[in-house]
Structures are given as structure tokens and as C-alpha cells.
Amino acid sequence: MLGLRFLGISIWRYLMATAIAVTLLAHAQSAAAQQREFYNGGFEQNDPQGAGAPTFQIFDDFVVPEWTDATGKIELWDSGFQGVIAYEGNVFAEMNANSPGTLHQDVCLLAGETIGWTFAHRARNGGPDPQIAILEIATSTGAIFQTLATQSTTIGQPWQVNTGSTTYTGATGTQRVQFRTTNPGSYGNFIDDLRLDIAAFAQFSAASSSDMEAGGGNIPTIILDGRVEFSTTIPFTITGGTATLTDDFTVSSGVVTIPAGLYKAQAFPLPITIVDDTVGEPDETIEIALGTPSSGEVVFAHTACDGTVPQVTTIYTIINDDGRIEANKSVEIYDPTLSGLYAVPGSDMIYTIDVINSGLLDIDNDTIFLSDELPSEVIFYNGDIDDSGPVNVVDFVDSGSGLTFDEAFDVGYSKAAAKPANMGDCGDTPAAGYDPTIRHICFAPKGIFLFGDPNPEFAVKFRVKIK
């Protein structure tokens, strides 16, 4: 439990109800993955015909992760079938499963960037000689606009590795990077270990996120898409927000290290830790921005590839859960005979302040203090609030709060212009009846303000007159 003081309830106008405290929960908008590499480039995620002796199988292309073929079919071989050992791993592909096609993945490419590649190619005995595989870039409809490599391999040669790089000449966007052969029929052209060499994309996981202070989770991560050839660091900076470094959160390092590897929407955590204190306070934010990566192995994601704005900045909200107090003030005409009275000069009104513990902890014993500054347009009424007796200047309505209220000790008044800091500042005695000198009314119910479901609450009511 903790001590919490809630001060300074105010309203703009005497006919306006003002929200005193609000609960803010930031919802995460997840970043979209943008492909920058061939995934499953060795076709290892399928096992032709399952366990047993090496063999082959023609799969529907949607069964082979990441890859699509214009024919809808992809033929995969086990290493060792018909004496052919895979170049890498245990599986490889044969182009043109049943008829000429194109084996492709959709990749986000940036205008003018350097694109590199490597792939292994082997001719199959009994097929055309030589056998030719072409790596090229096409539109989403299959219109070819840039050839990257042409590999010609003769029968009897071991696996041939084609490696190279060039400048991408197309527009920024998602394009089809495909393999095609000019050989007719479906016999020949083995391919394996297909890779691209372009900078990986980095961005935050979301534009905003939040968690309860005690949880301290859901902190944005850096999302990586693509291949990183050697270790690279991505710096980040705290650019603003209402949270205080050390008091509300700590940062163990200003960089995130990305080891060499192949990544698909891989999350790398920020070294930020939320401090779980026992201070009742408003929700607080941390504003974070990505800095320039240490090498060209990593660049920022690009809007044109999927239409979403890359997340290079983010806001994290620490939701206070130590004792969340919400208070709202409302007003109604004092009309005990239900005569349909209006709010005009000389009319009396009833102010109601509702106070709710919407947090996850009890509020410590005897620590609730509220003060309300009376608008200049009204006069406080020091008399029986409903004229029905016995005399109660203030009504206290409890709804599971666990608090007690004694008007003789738990209500105070101040004639000073300054806002009271505690009940000691509320020691003035109002005159009987309407007293225009009262500037603030103060409340200090006693006990532990419980938490629970539904949220416990209490209300205090008092009466004023419109001047």
C-alpha cells in the first residue's frame, strides 16, 4: 500500500462538469514486416515423402514455405537421391516441376541500392546440355525488367555457385525476384542455397505501447527483416516524455547489438527497465528514437514497400498501478420539490465530487485529501444541505471504499486564495448560512481506500448559490 494525496479539484464554469483524472492506455500499432531476403533458401522446411530412403516429391507451392511458382508446383529432392548430394543441407529443388515456370519470392527493393546474390546450380543427367538458370526481377504480374545473373552449367560439372552484385534499377517497392530457365521441359536445373545480399530493414515494433508499472513489459522492440553478414549496432535515444530517467526507468545501454544472421520479423529488446515504485502518480511516457546503424548492413524500413509508415520513433506509456485515483465533479440544480427550477442568479446548486480507486492497490490509511476551489460565481452554503435535518453541510456517500467520514473532523474550509496543501491549511470557520468568503472546501475521509472489482468509490456533496 502507499500514501496518495489528491489535490486541487477545479471546474471551469459553475455549470460545467469537469473530469479531474482520466485513465490513459496506449494501444500498440504493430509494424509490418518487409521482406529483404530469400527465406527457406535451401528448401529445408520440407522432407520429400517423409522419412525413409532419399526420394523426390512434387509439392503444391503453398506447402513449401516462402516460395511461389507460376505453375503452382515445386519439385524437391532429398540429398542422395539418384546420387545427387545437396549443395547445402538435405534438400534441393529442381526447376520446372511439370512444365516451365518461375520460382519466386516478393522482396522489398530500394531504388539505386546495391543488390547481391548467391545461388548454387547443377545440371541433371539426361536433361539438356548445358542447363541454364536465370535470376531476374519482375513486377507482381511477371513483367521482367532486370536480369541479375545467368548461370549455364554443363552435365557432369559439380554444383556451380553464382555470386555477384549490381545496382537495382527499378522503383522502390515490393518486386518479384525469381528464378527461370530457358530449357524446355521439366528435366534438369537443380538449385540450392539461394540468397540475396541487401541491407536488412530495422524499425520499432510499434508506434506506441504501454504496460502497468509493476509489469514493466510490452516495451517496444527493434524488428529486423533480412540478412546481416556481420555484427551491427543500432543506437537509440530517449528524446522526451514525462517519465524521469533513474526514478521511473533505467537504460543499461544506448545501443542494441544485432549479431550476424538471417532474420524474419525478429524482435530485439531495448535495454530499458521500468522502475516499480510505490508512488501514486500520473501515467508517464518515454519517447524513443532510432539512430543510424553502425554499418550499411542495416537500414530503416521504407514506406513504399507496404504503404505503412516505418516506425523509427515510438512512445511507451508507464501506467501507474500503485493507486490510481479518478475524480469527477458534477453539478445539479437544488430543486427539492421538483419544480423544474433553472440555473439563474439566486438559485442553489449541489456539487458532487465522485472519487474512484481504479488502481490495483489499497490506498494507505488516512492519506486521502481533496480540496476544491469554489468558482467566483458561487457562494458556499454553510447549512443543512437538503433542509430536512439533521444538519449535514456535506453528504458523504460510500460505495465500497472502506472509508469513514465524520463531518466534524473530516471537512475543512479556507478563505485564502492559495490552494491548500493539507487539512492544516483548511482551518477557517465559515459563517452560518451563505458565506462568500470561503474560497476552498477540503475533505479528508479516514481509513484505507480499498481497491477491487467493481472499483470502490465515494462521493461528497455540498451546496452553493449562484451570485
Summarize the structure in words:
- The protein is mainly beta and 467 residues long.
- The protein folds into three domains: 56-197, Jelly Rolls (Sandwich); 200-319, Sandwich (Immunoglobulin-like); 325-466, Sandwich (Immunoglobulin-like), CATH 2.60.40.
- Helices cover 1% and strands 41% of the residues.
- The chain is built from one helix and 31 strands.
- β7 and β8 (144-153) form a beta hairpin.
- The longest helix is centred in the C-terminal third of the chain and has 4 residues, at 407-410.
Quick overview:
The chain is built from 1 helix and 31 strands.
Quickly list its features.
467 residues; Jelly Rolls; Immunoglobulin-like; six-stranded antiparallel sheet; disordered N terminus
